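Lab manual, section 2.4: Encoding a predicted structure.

Procedure: take the sequence of the chain (81 residues), apply the prediction step described in section 2.3, and record the output as structure tokens. A sample record is shown.
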Amino acid sequence: MMTSRDACGKKASMLCTPKVSICIPTFNRAHVIGRSLDMLLQQTFKDFELIVIDDGSTDKLTNIVLQNDVHRIWYIKDPVN
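Recorded output:
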């Protein structure tokens, strides 16, 4: 359940399933992930969720992903590679 307005424009407490799920598996790619996220978030099509799966990165990837205050981004971090 969503607790606020979501990307679909539906009111609180309505279930929203995005039409598209984008999955980015990554490991130590902090130097490119910011650009990737920026490009995806600039698209005119907005009915999507972005899932970033971090396979135990040791660089600053976590900080870069989490600085994007966008409710469409899901960040999953595996503690070890």
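Check your result against the sample. Residues 20-78 form one domain.
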